[in-house]
Amino acid sequence: MKEPPIRAVIAPVTPLQQNCTIVWCTRTMKAAIIDPGGEAPRLLKALADHGLTLEKIWITHGHMDHAGATAEIKDSTGCPIEGPHRDDQFWIDRIADSGKQYGMPNARGFTPDRWLQNGDVVTLGETHFEVYHCPGHTPGHVIFFHREARFAQVGDVLFKGSIGRTDFPKGNFQDLISAITTRLWPLGDDVAFVPGHGPMSTFGFERKANPYVSDLAIESMAD
Length: 223
What we know:
Elements: E1 6-13, E2 18-25, E3 30-34, H1 40-49, E4 53-58, H2 64-67, H3 70-77, E5 81-82, H4 89-92, H5 95-101, E6 121-124, E7 127-133, E8 142-146, E9 151-155, E10 158-159, E11 162-163, H6 173-184, E12 192-195, E13 201-202, H7 203-209, H8 215-222
Parallel strand pairs: 3-4, 4-5, 9-12
Antiparallel strand pairs: 1-2, 2-3, 6-7, 7-8, 8-9, 10-11, 12-13
């Protein structure tokens, strides 16, 4: 049986149980941590337990529960931070204050080594992931997609049975619906995704059953 190009483990972190994902290239065992919201020592131990070498830190958006431990991991490893889109700078600037509110005094802001835009590509070992800018939950939200593995990390854009909140500052419901339907759905119904919280799903299942963005729900909005 052919070895898959990537593997991933999900490690929920912070009191908000945010899905931090460790994803790695199976040929090189080089890994990225996607959305390290907190519990940096636990995440670094998980890398060691799997025999992985951290190469990148990827951020979908600037909310504290997704990015609060980014600076700490950068300090510990020196690995570059890629993402989110520059429009989330104001959220990154709020991380320390948000951390204090949620009892996470180590949460700190940071400056990405690379801001990401729609259409960018990020590399990991011998693999690459496509970047799609999906605003709405936050203005600078991005998602990471591995085409061969049919795998996406979508942060708080889409959940099993729901979608991201748009009532935060600079959130926009119509932008979010547009991002899901014009940038996620064309990737294919067979794509399995890790959301920012809760269980995995597929785009095809959500197009059938999600009350906010199913094909039927979108048709109803258009009427």
